[in-house]
Specification:
Radius of gyration: 22 Å
Number of helices: 13
CATH architecture of one domain: 3-Layer(bba) Sandwich
Oligomer: single chain
CATH topology of one domain: FAD/NAD(P)-binding domain
Length: 455
């Protein structure tokens, strides 16, 4: 493929840097415009308020990241990230039962978001035709009305100087607050959008746990059993012999203003979890950081592939397209899958740039759609959730609930669920005859697996 000249990427987060990695093979010059200042150590960034909370790359995301940056997983582990057995080292209480603990042969990396992002930065810095410009705020697009084409951006830098930059392609990886959709609306271009109210609040803190206690887990998840329970929590080991504790509350169940006034507010929330495990651990924890709060009032999916008369030269990726319920840990992995889809299109395309953009937006929609429906199946277990419901929601919820409960008894069912949850297999993996028969058998017998201890 003939190499193009220049691409500008708005946003230097994970989605932006993944896009830069892919586009650097096809453009002579790649410029990333980042609002934040440059960081020289793995520290949280102002522009990523969710960065202080628990993060995880699902299997599909971790494998894809390794494909884009060969050797990055090893760098994670050499610098302190925790490599665990995904099904053996995870103690997960989910819908009132503990998941079956066994060695499924899968691995997961536990680390903080700044640790992960900083290592991606180190790989990006080695790509000679990628330039990251920090303290840059994009104010507006440069638009050629005659050709219906975006040709550049106006940028204000850290010293308040206004600059105009032009490029063959503009990539918006700026996240959920993307200006693209306000701009498109101003041009009279309608983008169908699904928005769902979930009222989610995150509260996190880094802690140190007593080393004298022997633990048979590296990460523990206590998920609420909806609709009666709205508060969940997690305690995960991360680099530096630390743990990150994260509490979540749906539909404003956590009052963050009151919480921040209390010295032991997180411990108070932990007492409300469906199991006492995390509360008991935190009673003896040494606090290493202040509490951090992050709110997600709504999740949204902007279906740009359904828009009409879109301008040439603008491609969107990552949270700019879809901000999903973060507690399911799929956001970063979606960005990786989108980057891989873009890479494949660039390698194989024989059409114009705008045809390629259209093809990518359609591919991104196909990646998002099944994940969006999976998440909504769970979010709509709360009556307060407001938005468009997936088709056949009641049946999906019934079937999913049975799979969740059976995965506490049968390794084969949990194994299938792990593959679907980690985006390595489609949802149809859970419809295999052996699983469907066990779901129907459980239903006909009116049986609910008794609550068990973590195995």
């Amino acid at each position: 493929m003939q190499q193009r000249e220049k691409v500008i990427i708005i946003g230097g987060g994970i989605a932006g840097k993944l896009a830069a990695r892919v586009l650097s093979d096809f453009f002579q010059e790649v410029i990333i415009l980042e609002r934040d200042s440059e960081t020289t150590t793995p520290t949280p960034r102002k522009g990523v308020p969710q960065g202080k909370h628990i993060h995880a790359l699902l299997h599909a995301g971790e494998h894809g990241l390794e494909n884009l940056f060969p050797g990055i997983s090893e760098r994670f582990h050499l610098n302190g990230a925790i490599k665990i057995n995904s099904t053996k080292d995870l103690a997960w209480f989910h819908h009132g039962v503990w998941k079956y603990r066994y060695d499924g042969g899968y691995t997961t990396t536990l680390q903080t978001r700044p640790h992960l992002e900083w290592h991606i930065d180190q790989f990006i810095q080695k790509i000679t035709n990628v330039d990251v410009m920090y303290n840059q705020t994009v104010k507006k697009y440069i638009y050629n009305n005659k050709d219906n084409r975006i040709t550049g951006v106006e940028v204000i830098n850290g010293t308040h100087n206004l600059t105009t930059l032009t490029a063959d392609l503009i990539v918006d990886a700026s996240g959920a607050s993307s200006m693209s959709f306000r701009w498109l609306k101003e041009q009279g271009i309608h983008i169908p959008t699904e928005e769902v109210k979930i009222g989610l609040t995150y509260v996190s803190q880094l802690v140190e746990l007593p080393s004298i206690k022997k633990r048979d887990w590296e990460i523990k998840l206590l998920y609420p059993n909806p609709p009666s329970e709205k508060i969940g929590g997690s305690l995960s080991k991360v680099e530096g012999n630390r743990y990150i504790v994260t509490m979540i509350g749906y539909h404003d169940e956590i009052n963050e203003k009151e919480l921040l006034k209390k010295d032991k507010g997180l411990l108070e929330i932990a007492r409300k979890l469906p199991k006492p495990d995390i509360y008991e651990e935190l009673q003896h924890a040494n606090v290493l950081s202040p509490m951090a709060v992050y709110r997600v009032p709504n999740i949204l999916w902007r279906k740009i592939d359904k828009g009409q008369k879109l301008p040439d030269g603008l491609l969107l990726i990552g949270d700019s397209l879809c901000r999903i319920d973060p507690f399911f840990g799929q956001g970063m992995s979606i960005a990786v899958l989108e980057a891989l889809a873009l890479q494949k299109l660039l390698q194989n395309q024989h059409h114009s740039q705008q045809k390629l953009i259209q093809a990518f937006h359609k591919k991104a929609g196909n990646i998002i759609a099944p994940i969006w429906n999976m998440v909504l199946t769970e979010d709509f277990r709360y009556p307060a959730t407001k938005g468009k419901k997936p088709l056949g929601l009641s049946l999906l919820q019934w079937y999913a609930k049975n799979v969740f409960l059976l995965s506490s008894q049968y390794p084969s069912i949990y194994d299938s669920f792990i593959k679907v949850m980690n985006l390595t297999r489609p949802i149809t993996e859970l419809m295999r005859p052996t699983t469907s028969i066990r779901v129907l058998t459980r239903w006909t017998k009116g049986h609910r697996p008794s609550e068990n201890k973590p195995k």
